[in-house]
Write a structure and sequence with these properties.
single chain; 159 residues; alpha+beta; Nuclear Transport Factor 2, Chain: A; 4 strands
Length: 159
């Protein structure tokens, strides 16, 4: 975890020293509350994407580290453009397998197809990716890992 326990210990020691100086109980409670807020802000920042996030915190918050990070963020318009471009390919084969979900790995026997060059130029995020056409969707695949990085379902794009 990216939390600096030594700093928290130093804060606690500082708090105790100041608390001893305080004569009123109410001041101690307020200081304790402030310390609690400061520590929770430090911990919360680390777990929610702070710069000091480590790999274990990433897996804890995303459920899989590398897999979740590889998903492409595409707008509905971009998904529609990809769908149209792939559907215009006259000989694009349809996979016989059941369609995978995003972050699933495709079996090696499922052939990957090149995305049309025009759509890869139009949407630079797609460069270096392939696609597989299924009965009800098109999936964009990272060819190195064979992980599905985007899914374009047919039913959402029909009028």
């Amino acid at each position: 975890m990216g939390i600096n326990l030594e700093s928290i210990g130093q804060l606690l020691q500082l708090f105790l020293a100041v608390a001893r100086q305080c004569a009123k109980r109410r001041t101690s409670i307020i200081m304790l509350a402030c310390l609690g807020f400061a520590v929770s802000a430090q911990i919360g920042g680390d777990l929610r994407g702070g710069e000091s996030m480590d790999a274990s915190a990433m897996e804890e918050t995303t459920g899989g580290g590398k897999r979740a990070a590889e998903e492409l963020t595409l707008s509905d318009e971009q998904r529609g453009r990809i769908y149209e471009a792939v559907m215009r390919i006259p000989n694009a084969s349809v996979a016989d397998e059941s369609a995978p979900a995003v972050a699933d790995a495709l079996p090696s026997e499922v052939p990957l197809q090149d995305l049309p060059a025009g759509i890869a130029r139009e949407i630079p995020l797609l460069r270096g990716h392939n696609f597989v056409k299924f009965d009800d969707r098109i999936v964009v695949v990272d060819p190195k890992s064979r992980l599905v990085v985007a899914m374009i379902p047919r039913y959402k794009l029909l009028p």
